[in-house]
Specification:
By secondary structure, the chain is an alpha/beta fold. It has nine helices and eight strands. An eight-stranded mixed β-sheet has the order 1-2-4-3-5-6-7-8, with helices on both faces. α1 runs antiparallel to α6.
Length: 274
């Protein structure tokens, strides 16, 4: 999968990254790259370097700009790292690992080592939650707390979405922006720009087994929308609760796949652990 064409064209890639750069300009974040065997990884860093590290992993068809509110809310108390996932619509390498391999967890482990992080509060959204789980089941002793928003990997994806993603990749058309009600127009416009020029993952994200989930002994938070059209949130919650009974789970009414202001759940959860 590593040779998959990530962007629909070089010009679209450059346009998306230019908009990303414009969005980050003037923000109070350190912008840095770390080198891994899978290519360079772009990271936004903020907060007190002596504070506990929190790593944020964004969803598919996005980048770390979409964690802006969470970075701002967390940085007074934590050392925050928002990591652009490789093979996604950010500034990291255009290499997309095979979903069934261990490359994603190897990439994240190498990234964390290069950042000097050994005991991490790991937080993911959608694909980022799948990746956080991928890492946590393989390196459970490295994860202090695990926070999952709209998590993939705990239930089957909606077949209609997968068909649309595959069709978009094959026809050079874009996926329609969904579930954006209430979001600032600048964010909706950025998402639509990404969707017009980016080839999303179009295959099923592997589901984690009960045996794998039983390795998760750390404090665990799951937040998902009952009206999520991409994932079966109630089914995912039941599945996670069965194998990780310590999980704190919030199923939000009148909420779809995009969970806004995740910091309203992150901060109270972390406060309870300290």
């Amino acid at each position: 999968m590593g040779t998959t064409k990530i962007f629909k064209s070089t010009s679209k890639r450059d346009e998306i990254r230019a908009r990303y750069g414009d969005f980050l300009a003037g923000m109070p974040f350190i912008k840095r790259y770390v080198s891994t065997e899978f290519g360079d990884t772009f990271v936004l860093e903020a907060g007190d370097p002596s504070a506990e590290p929190v790593v944020l992993l964004h969803g598919s068809c996005t980048n770390s700009a979409f964690w802006f509110n969470e970075i701002m809310a967390l940085m007074p108390k934590y050392h925050v790292f928002a990591v652009d996932i490789i093979g996604e619509a950010g500034n990291s390498a255009e290499y997309r690992p095979d979903l069934k391999s261990e490359e994603f967890s190897q990439w994240l482990n190498e990234t964390l080592e290069k950042l000097g992080i050994s005991n991490v509060i790991l937080c993911g959204n959608s694909l980022g939650s799948w990746l956080a789980l991928n890492y946590a089941v393989r390196y459970p002793n490295n994860v202090k707390e695990l926070l999952l928003f709209a998590p993939a990997g705990l239930s089957k994806l909606n077949d209609v979405y997968l068909e649309k993603a595959e069709e978009a990749n094959e026809t050079d058309e874009s996926l329609a922006m969904a579930d954006g009600a209430g979001m600032p127009q600048v964010i909706v416009d950025f998402i639509n720009l990404i969707l017009s020029g980016f080839n999303p993952i179009s295959e099923e994200l592997p589901q984690y087994s009960g045996e794998e989930l039983e390795r998760l002994k750390m404090p665990l938070l799951m937040v998902a929308g009952v009206e999520d059209e991409l994932l079966d949130a109630p089914g995912a919650a039941e599945y996670l609760r069965k194998y990780a009974p310590q999980a704190e789970i919030h199923l939000l009414e009148h909420t779809g796949h995009m969970i806004q202001n995740a910091y309203a759940f992150i901060l109270p959860f972390l406060e309870k652990q300290n």
